[in-house]
């Protein structure tokens, strides 16, 4: 939500999708399950009726369903791929139709350091996040002539409710692998996304930008 708030603070019209939880006060909330193409189409129709054509898409819907490879079943693998990778494809495809008419646009996919380095017990999640790189770079080649960019932000460990509940020993183990010695803030991830959506990044496309404190260097 920090990303949406950052754009709102900059004076942009912002809409966020949700699956029933609603949106924070002041933001347009649109119900949408990204695994359902019809819901994606309806959500964009609703957003465009309220705010006009979409100029910036941030695709960050994602789920996890961890498990070791030999214990992971097809449904477990497919469910994560469908939400994280195919879901991003669905929203990008619909957003691109609007951007083509405008002859400009910014698409930013939120990946993960795990998508670049892998993670034990996360074959499905890592594959889905790695796939976003190929998706973004293909879009960059297809739509670049229309001034539409597609990039990937790959966060590492970020201070959230999920990391707050980690055991102290696990936190120390993780921090010991991060050159900067701390977790990222959500504002640091949001700032990178905002930069990619700005005029300053107009000549940046097909890039993967890590926001991981150096955790994934070399990947």
Total DSSP E strands: 6
Distance between the termini: 27 Å
Instruction: Look up the CATH topology of the domain at 60-211.
Output: Rossmann fold
Q: What sequence of helices (H) and strands (E) makes up the elements?
A: HEEHEHEHHEHHHE
CATH H-tier superfamily of the domain at 60-211: NAD(P)-binding Rossmann-like Domain
- Uncertain spans, ≥5 residues at pLDDT below 50? none
Architecture of the domain at 60-211 in CATH?
3-Layer(aba) Sandwich
Determine the number of helices (DSSP H or I, runs of at least 4 residues).
Answer: 8
The geometry reads as globular
Give an overview of the whole structure.
InterPro entries: NAD(P)-bd_dom_sf, Sc_DH/Rdtase_CS, SDR_fam. GO terms for molecular function: 3-oxoacyl-[acyl-carrier-protein] reductase (NADPH) activity. Belongs to the short-chain dehydrogenases/reductases (SDR) family. This protein has 219 residues and is an alpha/beta fold. It has a domain of 152 residues: NAD(P)-binding Rossmann-like Domain (Rossmann fold, 3-Layer(aba) Sandwich). The chain contains eight helices and six strands; from the N terminus they run αββαβαβααβαααβ. The strands form two sheets. The protein has a four-stranded parallel β-sheet with strand order 3-4-5-6, with helices on both faces. A two-stranded parallel ribbon has the order 1-2. β3, α3 and β4 form a beta-alpha-beta unit. α1 packs across α8, α2 runs parallel beside α3 and α3 packs parallel to α5. The protein is globular, with a radius of gyration of 17 Å. It starts with a helix and ends in an 8-residue tail after the last strand. The model has no long low-confidence stretch (mean pLDDT 94).
């Amino acid at each position: 939500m920090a990303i949406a708030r950052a754009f709102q603070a900059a004076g942009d019209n912002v809409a966020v999708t949700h699956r029933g939880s609603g949106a924070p006060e002041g933001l347009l909330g649109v119900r949408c399950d990204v695994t359902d193409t019809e819901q994606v189409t309806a959500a964009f129709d609703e957003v465009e009726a309220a705010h006009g054509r979409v100029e910036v898409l941030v695709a960050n819907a994602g789920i996890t369903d961890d498990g070791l490879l030999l214990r992971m079943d097809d449904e477990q693998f497919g469910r994560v791929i469908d939400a994280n990778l195919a879901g991003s494809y669905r929203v990008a495809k619909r957003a691109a139709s609007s951007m083509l008419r405008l002859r400009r646009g910014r698409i930013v996919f939120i990946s993960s350091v795990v998508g670049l380095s892998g993670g034990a017990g996360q074959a499905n999640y890592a594959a889905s996040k790695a796939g976003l790189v190929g998706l973004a770079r293909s879009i960059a080649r297809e739509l670049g002539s229309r001034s539409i960019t597609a990039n990937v932000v790959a966060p590492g460990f970020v201070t959230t409710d999920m990391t707050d509940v980690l055991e102290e020993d696990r936190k120390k183990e993780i921090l010991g692998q991060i050159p900067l010695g701390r977790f990222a803030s959500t504002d640091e991830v949001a700032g990178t996304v905002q930069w990619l959506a700005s005029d300053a990044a107009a000549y940046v496309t097909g890039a993967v930008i890590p926001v991981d404190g150096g955790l994934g260097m070399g990947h």
